């Protein structure tokens, strides 16, 4: 999948604080979801690098 990663930002989620970034389609620039860049808590580090895709948008595209 071709994605572009936007600016990093800190976000407070239910599971703690994370550095995240929105991700965009490299073809049409539409926002597709976001990615965990860094977890502040060790127990959440397994999420680093994982994308959260917004399925409704994916279905529209494919
Ligand atoms: Zn696209």
TrEMBL record:
PROSITE patterns: YIPPEE
Domain spans labelled Yippee: 1-62
Top-level taxon of the source organism: Eukaryota
Keywords: Metal-binding, Zinc
Pfam families, sorted: Yippee-Mis18
Residues annotated as signal peptide: none
Listed InterPro entries: Yippee, Yippee/Mis18/Cereblon, Yippee_fam
GO molecular function: metal ion binding
Stated family: Belongs to the yippee family.
Name of the featured protein: Protein yippee-like
Originating species: Dorcoceras hygrometricum
